[in-house]
Every structure is written in C-alpha cells, then in structure tokens.
Amino acid sequence: MPEIEIRPAIATDIPALVAIDHNYSSDFVWQMDLQTDEGHVGINFREIRLPRSVRVEYPRPVRNLPDQWTQRAGLLVARIDEEIVGYASLMLNIAPLTAWATDLAVASRYRRQGIASTLVLAAQEWGLNHECRWLVLEMQPKNHAALRLAEKLGFDLCGYNDRYYANHDIGLFFAKSLR
Question: How far apart are CA 134 and CA 119, in angstroms?
Fold first, then answer.
C-alpha cells in the first residue's frame, strides 16, 4: 500500500480537488421501506442488488464545492507522492459535540487502496482535536462503497433524511463515538 499523507488543504489544492471524479458506480442500493399501522410508523432499509451497475452522479454540483468548502471548519487532503488523491470536508455545529463529514472523495484510480479509510481516521482525530464526541458520515443510499466503509470502520446508522440532497436523494447518516 502506498504511503498516504493527510494534511489540511491549502488554496492551491482547490483545482486538484475539483478535478477529482466525484461520481461512482454501484451494484447495490439501500432501499427504504415505510410501513404505517395504527399508531406505529416503521422504516427499514434493505440492501438490494441492482440488475446492472449504475453510474451515480455526485449529489452536489462539483462546480459549487469550492464555495461550500469556505464554509467548512476543516478540509483534509490525501496525497500520495505529492499528488492529491482525495479529501474530506468537515463541519462543526450541525449537532452538539459532533464533527460531520459532508464530503469524502477519492480519485477513481486510487479507490480501494485505503485512502478513504485513512481520511476517515484522520477526520476522527480532527474531531477529537475539536472537542467532539462523535463523527458523522453522510452518504447516498446508492454509495455501496461508502456504506461498506462506514460498517468496516465501526460506524452505526443513526438516521436519515428523505430528499436531503438537491437531487432529492435520501441522505444516510452513520455515527461513531470518538471517546
């Protein structure tokens, strides 16, 4: 596995971060089932294998990301041999004592090499340094790789928001205690 350097982003990193292919392919989706009975509402998610791979567009317009990053409390960059290969953007104050990873992206040719895991572990450390007790990851229900990453790193589903993203996709939220 290559040596991955994680550091805070600097202004000159922005063009390379925007150039990362934020889209992904998936063979699975978490399908939401809503059940209502008298006095009871139940919501279940189940993993469904799709009949064919789908290419999923990133839920935020990539051209708007630099403006959004200026509103983030943290932007961590992953580099291998001086090349920017991924990033995680982090917010504070969405929930008390919680760091919130709003974006996590890795360049296509570097995926499945531990970079996203390294970024999440760095985000956990970042959260601890900002006196947070929790780290939350947000993702789309079609992002099977991110769902597996959250599971692998010990995150638990803690909620969802129907029509969370501008494209009306569901936002899934996974949390992990940092203490």
Answer: 16
Q: Is the pTM of this model over 0.85?
A: yes
Domain 5-22+61-177 annotated CATH 3.40.1830.10: no
* In the chain, domain spans: 5-22+61-177
pLDDT per residue, tens digit, the chain (179 aa), is 669 999 999 999 999 999 999 999 999 999 999 899 888 999 999 999 999 999 999 999 999 999 999 999 999 999 999 999 999 999 998 999 999 999 999 999 999 999 999 999 999 999 999 999 999 999 999 999 999 999 999 999 999 999 999 889 999 999 999 98
- 21, 108 Cβ separation under 8 angstroms: yes
